[in-house]
Amino acid sequence: MSDSIKKSSPAADAWHVLKQSKSAMLGLIIIVFLFLLALGGKLILPHDPYIGSMAENFQPPSAAHWMGTDELGRDILSRIIDGTRISLRVGIVSVLAALVVGTALGATAAYYGKRVDMIIMRFMDMMLAIPDILLAIAIMAALGPGIDKAIIAISFVTIPQYARIVRGCVLSVKESDYIAAARLVGNKDWRIIARHILPNVASAIIVRSTLGISSAILDAAALGFLGLGVQPPYAEWGTMLGSGRLYIFNAPYIVVFPGLAITITVLAFNLFGDGLRDALDPKGKIR
Amino acid sequence: MPELAPLVQVKSLSKSFVLERSWGGKPTSVLKAVDNISFSVAKGEVFGLVGESGCGKTTIGKLICGMFSPDSGQILYDGRDITHLNQKERRSLCTEIQFIFQDPYSSLNPRMTVWQTLSEPIAINGLLPKSEIGKRVDKLLDCVGLASYTKSRYPHEFSGGQRQRIGIARALALNPKFIVCDEPVSALDVSIQAQVLNLLADLKDEFGLTYIFIAHGLNVIKHLSDRVAVMYLGKIMETAPKEGLSNPINPYTKALMSAIPIPDPNRKRERILLSGDVPSPINPGPGCRFASRCFAASPECSLSEPPAQEYEKGHFASCFNAAPAN
Amino acid sequence: MLLEVKGLTTVFHMKEGAVRAVQNASFQAGKGEVLAIVGESGSGKSVTSLSIMGLVGEQGTVESGRILYKGEDLLKASKKRMQQLRGNEISMIFQEPMTSLNPVHSIRKQLVEAITTHKNATKQEAEEHALEMLDFVGIPSPKARMGNYPHEMSGGMRQRVMIAMALSCDPQLLIADEPTTALDVTIQAQIMDLLHGLKERLGMGMILITHDLGIVAETADRVAVMYCGRIVEEAPVKELFEEPLHPYTRGLIASIPRLDVSVKRLPVIRGMVPDPTLVPKGCSFSDRCDYCEDKCKRDVPGLASVSPTRKVRCFQRAGILEEKDEKDEKGGAACQN
To answer: Which pLDDT score is estimated for B9?
Structure first.
């Protein structure tokens, strides 16, 4: 290898490929924008998202209220901006929680195999046999409504997805020679899993979680729509849709804008996730 | 060769893999990868294991390193029984026994830099204080002929030959006394093979290592080994000191010798062409494993297994019909 | 002349830039002759054969040169004509038969199809011919084997089926690309023996592409050694092994461990085959060569004739020859014992 080749790490290579994908970059830009809104949105809110005047209710989009006002006269734009924080929080925290538990379960099942694998994976299969949203509703019914509980419910029902993906990847990696070599130089089991196996399945996990964020946001919206998730007055997009659905015919903007917000966010995470998959997939590489 | 104390002794080692089971869990298809094999390797010796694919040579190497657990038999290392060890005992052996893999592309962790790959064994075993690991890694890289500035690189930035050197450096990192080399050059280009073979020979001299050297090419085996065992379908057919190889006794060894093309158009030899394929080692019958393809086979060959007989000093062969050495 | 390749240059367009996989290669293959093209990975030996077959793929283009098969330029031939030639006149066998046999069809179906598309034969005739071919390549009980699928056969058997398929239309030229690399040594001996016998019997020309100098020594009549896309030496097989002229050829021959000769240390070629995008500017071997001088780093040496039968691409060959004479006087074969 000549020195004129510039040093490259797997991460740098992936970024190089990712940069060339226009749709992934568009997704990334939207995601960054959403994060900025979530973090600094409070500073640019045109109106208070929680206090409106009944005199101003059902106003169509105008210069004062770009997206109109809802049934209580609250500014919809402000509510959507404020909702960004809630939606992203639900999406990211629930994915992280599911990811940690799912990875631990999947990796343990695959690495130890046999009976351990059997018990863990049959339990996962049982969970997968129940429709996600049904299971989430059941959990919400048991826990009661609220943001934190929505996060718990969503992460719990998505654990099997991560466990299965991680198990599959670990199974294929654990037979590699470099894992045998790691064992031969004296690594303990936990270290082999943490230092040698997981970094090699990380790309699959990262891709799945990025796509998972969008489905978690959708799930949260669905729970909100059903009145089980985030409770009014919090400006969660799904809750906004749910309470606005009564007025869909005479004031469509009440549901159109929160719906658009959900769609754009989900689309952004999907675009970025697909781009990531292409960038991190070793088969996509030239050599 | 003077009689040296054996470093590794393998006694009637067997390992089979169950490929299929009936519904009741009874094995119906069993691959006998290693079948009742015994040999010993002296300190400082290079013991070559040669044979075609499926003969069980790699399985032996992996059994010794504890990557598989044998069905029966015994493995002694320095007089100590290491056949069945728990994980902790096995880990303590990592400073004694190491392994060099065949495929330099799958034997290095793609997500770890050379530095990480080489420093990890030293760090987790606490061989050196942190401050001295850097020097040690540089020394290791120097030993295998790589520049120390390459240590921040990832495996994909190296060629096959360089990767194999990194794999060798990893095996050396813990100062082992015994290394199993599993076809270390067969995945490499011709001009690189010689470099790696020389490197292995140099390292052996420098660190007083003992090797089991596994390969499918008799020429490569003969170049590096002091003693060679020829394997066929899980059995050792012939064991000979390197010099004895030019005078093979077992018909399979003869055929194998004559099948290796010699890069010299003026040396036209009488070729022994074997008929048929290497039979599968699944559910073998009684008798000599080679009988189905052997040009010297007699009826008794398929009835019972020929025992190993010593023809010359240190030169053993298992065959009913072998002519005594001339 | 059966096949004449003149100034063949094949370029691959990659992300890192254009790679000249084959540069200005010229050689000939006659009837009943085995031409071996030897080289390591990245030498361009396989691309050369694919260029002849018109199978370089989408990323590659034959940039210049002529490939004359019985005087007809294959590079100018239409797609239809090439297809006609590929089965009937020129055949190819590959390293891994599993990838070139269709896993979902039986051997019978594949052989019959190969025969009927290229020959005017009824299904019945084709089937009989297929049976003959399987028998011809030494497959035991060919009738039973006809119904098998590729995965039911061993590597050696599959390679025999490949050869049967390649020979089913009596080609005049057979290109064998690493035909035995995936096989065990005893099976390799069988296949090489078979190929050699078939060549003798059918009188076809053969281009054998391999990295194994042992196989070359035992089967080839003439040898072209390739390095980094260029032919660096071409010679009749005996002369090449007796007195290799190019430093690369010498290094390569010397570095193989031999059964009949024992050495303590193997002579090596230092360094490694350069990355295809980073081949040295002058002679491509200059960075690994012991005889390298300034001129070698600057200019690309031409493939010069040194005798009626031999060509070599090296500026320093005169010096190398002198040194060899000196060595011979000193008592010669010092490395043999």
So the answer is: 93
For residue C32, report the phi and psi dihedrals to the nearest 5 degrees.
65, 15
Burial C139-163 (b: 16+ CB within 10 A, else e): beebeebbebebeebbbbbbbbbbb
Cβ contact C52:C219 at 8 Å: no
Contact criterion met (CB < 8 Å) for B191 and C185: no
Among C14, C15, C278, beta carbon nearest to A2: C278
Residue of A8, A181, A199 with shortest CB distance to B107: A181
Q: Indicate left, alpha or beta for C19 from its phi (over 0: left) and psi (-120 to 50: alpha).
A: beta
C58 in A contact zone (CB under 8 Å): no
Predicted TM-score of the model (pTM) = 0.83
CA of A10 vs chain C CAs: smallest distance (Å)? 17
Partners of chain A (3+ Cβ pairs below 8 A)? B, C
Nearest C-alpha neighbor of C253 from the set C273, C237, C229: C237
Interatomic CA distance for residues C128 and C115, integer angstroms: 11
pLDDT in the model for residue B37: 92
> Using N-to-C axis directions, what is the helix angle for B251-259 and C185-202, rounded to 10°?
60
Domain borders along chain A are 19-45+65-281
Q: What is the pLDDT of residue A284?
A: 42
**Quick one: A19-45+65-281 is in which CATH superfamily?**
MetI-like (1.10.3720.10)
Contact assessment for residue B216 and residue B183, using Cβ atoms and an 8 Å cutoff:
yes
Q: Enumerate residue ranges in chain B where pLDDT < 70.
A: 1-4, 323-326
Instruction: Identify residue C235 by its one-letter amino acid code.
Output: A
Please name the helix (run of DSSP H) or strand (run of DSSP E) that holds residue B68, with its range, or none.
Answer: none
Complex ipTM value = 0.86
Residue B8 pairs in a beta bridge with B41, B77
Partner residue facing C15 (CB), from A1, A4, A286:
A286
Q: Do B170 and A10 touch (CB under 8 A)?
A: no
Rounded to the nearest 5 percent, the helix, strand and coil shares of chain B are 35, 25, 40
Q: How far is CA B161 from CA A1, B192, C184, in A?
A: 11, 6, 23
pLDDT tens, residue by residue, A177-195: 999 999 999 899 999 999 9
| B189 contact residues in C (CB cutoff 8 A) | 40-41, 211, 272-273
Taking only residues 30 to 49 of chain C, the set having a beta carbon closer than 8 angstroms to any beta carbon of chain B reads 40-41
Residue A8 to residue B87, Cβ atoms within 8 A: no
